[in-house]
Design a protein that fits this description.
Layout lengths: L3 E5 L4 H8 L6 E6 L11 E4 L5 H11 L3 E4 L6 H6 L1 H22 L2 E7 L21 H15 L4 E6 L2 E2 L10 H10 L4 E4 L3 E2 L2 E2 H13 L4 E4 L6 E2 H11 L7 E4 L1 H4 L14 H7 L6 H7 L4
Parallel strand pairs: 1-2, 1-4, 2-3, 4-5, 5-6, 6-11, 7-10, 8-13
Antiparallel strand pairs: 9-12
């Protein structure tokens, strides 16, 4: 019998990637606060507001998931900084509602976290590195992690970095799509050259979640790309790959952008544990670019 997997944030990039690469391996139920943004044929979709504990209970009671991939979150870092109450409501209280439903119905929770739980002072963060978030967003995800770790449910915490990918009608863009759109229109962009990340293809992140299920792996796992880049280098490669004018790209320091929320400067993740324990093997950044349509 197929395992039953419930996805929160089913309209988002990761949610849609999970559905796309499922290949009939699991019985999926995608959920989201809004109506479905895509056509679900082999998979089901149900409305779910993670802030509504009664609705959570009803959806869980009907579907009875073996696993829950909790991807729904408030992720816009600056908006989180401007509105910490809503950020904490969604990322902490919403997660707690999902946690309680998992506890009641015996579901294994896979929580999607972030490299932003680290301060970015040194990078190459492993699962054992000490979190020290410097933004409201990072703090909210770390607080959600602590709720899960303090519970008695079966759980996996997935820390990832700079997720990118493409689907039609996405609710939000991502760095690569944004840069391609601007460069394709001949518009100048300012890109930081002092931030280092391990960019992650959404399809690799989805596959990482499936590998956790297949291997019944619990605990903390870094699931990201294996290559680390300065963000400016990343976008230069986007320009080269798409034959865009690289002179449109202006390299700046983070402090020059005047962003509302602080960002960790060096937050690349060490994925050795995921490679070793669950056989995670992400695509190269070039492969990711090849997979994404030109604008």
């Amino acid at each position: 019998m197929k395992k039953r997997v419930l996805i929160t944030g089913g309209n988002g990039l990761l949610g849609r990637s999970i559905i796309s690469c499922n290949e009939n391996r699991f019985e999926l139920l995608a959920t989201g606060k809004q109506k479905s943004h895509t056509s679900y044929t082999d998979n089901l979709y149900a409305p779910l507001d993670i802030l509504d504990s009664n609705q959570c209970d009803k959806v869980f009671s009907k579907f009875k998931p073996d696993y829950v991939i909790h991807a729904a979150a408030m992720t816009h870092v600056d908006k989180c900084e401007e509105d910490p109450d809503t950020c904490n409501l969604v990322n902490v209280d919403g997660t707690n509602n999902i946690l309680k439903a998992c506890q009641k119905y015996g579901s294994h929770l896979i929580f999607i976290s972030t490299d932003f739980i680290f301060d970015g002072n040194h990078g190459s963060y492993s699962e054992n590195s000490k979190p020290n978030p410097i933004s409201i967003y990072g703090t909210s995800k770390w607080n959600a992690e602590k709720l899960i770790r303090a519970s008695t449910i079966d759980s996996s915490i997935v820390r990832t970095s700079l997720v990118m990918g493409y689907f039609e009608n996405l609710m939000t863009s991502n760095l690569i799509l944004w840069a391609r759109e601007k460069l394709s229109k001949g518009k100048k962009i300012s890109i930081v050259n002092d931030q280092i990340r391990t960019p992650t293809w959404s399809m690799d992140l989805a596959e990482g979640c499936f590998l956790l299920i297949r291997n019944r792996a619990a605990g903390i796992y870094n699931i990201s790309g294996s290559e680390k880049f300065r963000i400016s280098e990343l976008i230069m490669r986007v320009a080269e790959h798409g034959n865009y004018n690289s002179k449109l790209i202006k390299e700046v320091k983070t402090k020059e952008l005047g962003q509302i929320a602080p960002r960790p400067l060096i937050s690349d993740l060490d994925i050795s544990k995921a490679r070793r324990n669950i056989g995670f093997n992400p695509h190269s950044f070039k492969d990711v670019l090849d997979s994404m349509p030109y604008i």
